[in-house]
Amino acid sequence: MPAFRALLVGLLAALAAMSVGAAGQAPQGGPGPVRVIELDGGIDPVSAAFVGRRLDAAADDGASAVVVQLDTPGGLVSSMRDIVSDMGASPVPVTVWIGPSGARAGSAGAYIAAASDQLGMAPGTNIGSATPIGSGGEDLDAKVRNDSAAFIQALAEEHGRNGSAYREMVLSALNLTAQEAVDQNVAEVIQPTVADFVAWLDGRPGRAGPIRTAGAPIETDALPWYLRGLQVLTDPTLVFFLLLLGLGGLAFEVFHPGAILPGVIGGICLILGLAGLTVLPFSWAGIALLLLGVGLLVAETQVGGFGALAAGGVVALALGGAFLFDSDDPAQRPSLWVVVVVSVAIGAGFAAATMKVMRARRQPVVAGADELLGELGTVRSAVGPAGGQVMVNGERWRAHARAGVEIPAGQSVRVVRVNTDDLSVTVEQTEE
Predict the structure, then answer these.
(1) Which structural domain, as residue segments, surrounds residue 76?
(2) pLDDT per residue over 287-335, tens digit each?
(3) Domain closes at, from 196, 227, 258
């Protein structure tokens, strides 16, 4: 029995060793999934962060390749550079397919296309017109254009494409159809669908050897709805406006409690403005100036000065808008004219509120029985010196007329005195 047990243990150990060796020599499974990242609409901080996260996820999941399905008119230079940087740092081959038919890779999209390991286009698409422009649509100076031209040319030549054609997209706004792009070595292939492009990729050169996509599952990542909503808040002018409305509405509610509506609207606008700041590079100096400006405008409504505080508030708001966003990209700063106009408009609104507050303060305080003086009413039962009844402000009052005067029912009267000793009023007839 001991010998049999020893033999059995030996056989089991041998089988285990053979299993481990066989496992080590077993062929690996098929290629990892192909991740398709849908990038449509403007290139902004939200879409740049989305692409960066999906590229990281593709690397973590062992994807065999990434296809950026591109359809964009362009966008922010800073966001485009973030995407290009993430593409270059990814260990997974990153390709671009401009599609579907009717799509385009304009402006910032041309740089992303130039940075791809393989570039395909659907029939009826185009690429180009990559001249950088300012936030107001104006052309930037030659220094900026030449820098952008050198950048896109370097990207294209690094991936074996016609760098001169890409350079002309910046300097001369060159725009090419899909067939022209392939003929001029701007793109590699025309494929009608993303699935056809993925099939074509198999065996093509990648950054670490041939790309393997045969039999690989295709997984598509689209920008979720909440990020599309956040994209609206990447407009710096809109964020500046929302912050001012939010701060102003909350300040008005604090100093005039009970209004409710300004506080509700202000709270919503402030939250939306803060959400916009999470995707835009902002300066704390700009935030401090906005708070100071709103504070000065609110103080003006409380002290009722001669406008010095309001003027200082308007200046602080304008400076806050100018310094709010810390970016060298003109498209990530609000228009200076809009900042000035909005600041003056809000200052005028607070000035109007100040005038109403001061007018209310100058009025005599009326409370208690004195509120009835001068009020009009209607005689319910004939009123004479001995008494009668009138309706004033929806209430029935015992009333008296002056000596020798009788006022019949139905006549209009005015309250001329309130008799606090017997809670009655003295009235006189009017012609109203």
Answers:
(1) 29-227
(2) 898 888 888 877 776 675 556 777 888 888 888 888 888 766 666 677 7
(3) 227
